[in-house]
Amino acid sequence: MKQFLIFAVKPVCYNSYLYFARSLAKALTNAGHHAELFSCEQEPPEAMERFAGRSYDAVFDFNSELPRLRMEDGSYFLDQIHAPFYDILLDHPLYHHDTLKQRISDFHVLCLDEHHIHYVRGCYPHIKSAELFPVTGEDIVPTDDAYPAKDLDVLFSGTYTNYREIEASIQTIPSFLGDLTKQLIHLMSEQPALTQEDALRLLLPSLEESEIIEETFPLHMQACFLCDSYLRAYKREKLLLHLAENHIPFTICGNGFSHSPLADFKQVRIIDDLSFSDTFALFRRSKITLNLLPEFKNGTHDRIYSSMLNHSLCLTDASPLLQRQFTDGKELLFYTYEHPDQLTDLIFDLLSSDCRVKEISQNGYFCAKENHSWQARAALLLSIVK
């Protein structure tokens, strides 16, 4: 029996980190191992000191800041725990440069995107390993021996960020970074398959050698984080606005949308302030779940598996990773962001074809139940840390 320690330290909206930590702990326990969970929701951060000197087979955290934590003598806190540390990144690594650059003795990273794996391996050679580990969701358990009815046509789950405010922020940063960020946004908009790291490298020949060098590449990626933030926010609003303007009835679950242009459409229902675990009931009520990957060019997202596990047809943009995991038209459906009219037509066709929706949803459910449950993720994690 292996011994694991799982942290849930950072408070975030929807309590998603705590959900992931609890789900992972439960799955590892069900696999016959011992998983200890530390949550700052239940204990103060100072209580973490009790783990100093203890030994585990592995320690996990999500989007962690623990590698930056030092003891009074200047040593790393995580080096006081005798175990390899795995940081499970839920975003592009560029957002976590200040953590990833720390040289704790046994540092490992798990990612949602295969491009992120290559980025970590190339930019942080002191990190011992980087592997793929997509987080997932769960199928809800009915409270009254009956699942809720499929009373929602289309569901979109995610937070709203006003891209205009990000534009304004770009105007306030130093001119070099502002100009570079604008160039990145333009290039990645023109060539949607480009990652930000590839786009930045394409721009290098046009920049002064003194302005950016290979050794500081991760730092410049971090400095241009507004490019990633802008593209995610812009694409999300534009896609949903197109559907709304073409009279698609849909429900949005996520903070901020009540202050967005989507709130002006009568056929758009907005649900704010729902905890992460409560979203699964909405997936179960939805005939179709629409997903837009957050600039993950070769990755995935937990929304995909959560919808499939709750018998909702997942309609998502594609990535090579997803195309290896699923067959288009069998377990889910892919669409192309650059062709929103085709997406609109596809949704209307699906809403008039219950049999097709049910068939794909059922196939997706069985596939996700076998391959993408938390129990399957525990088995994957055990193979990684062995």
Structure description:
This protein is an alpha/beta fold. The chain is 40% helix and 15% strand. It is built from 14 helices and 12 strands. It has a 6-stranded parallel beta sheet with strand order 2-1-3-4-5-6, sandwiched between helices. The chain has a 6-stranded parallel beta sheet with strand order 9-8-7-10-11-12, sandwiched between helices. α2 (97-100) links the parallel β4 and β5 (107-111). The mean pLDDT is 94.
SSE diagram, text form:
Layout: E1 3-8, H1 16-30, E2 34-39, E3 58-62, E4 85-88, H2 97-100, E5 107-111, H3 114-123, E6 129-132, E7 152-157, H4 163-172, H5 175-190, H6 196-203, H7 217-223, H8 225-245, E8 250-253, E9 268-271, H9 279-285, E10 286-291, H10 302-309, E11 313-317, H11 320-325, E12 333-335, H12 340-351, H13 354-371, H14 374-385
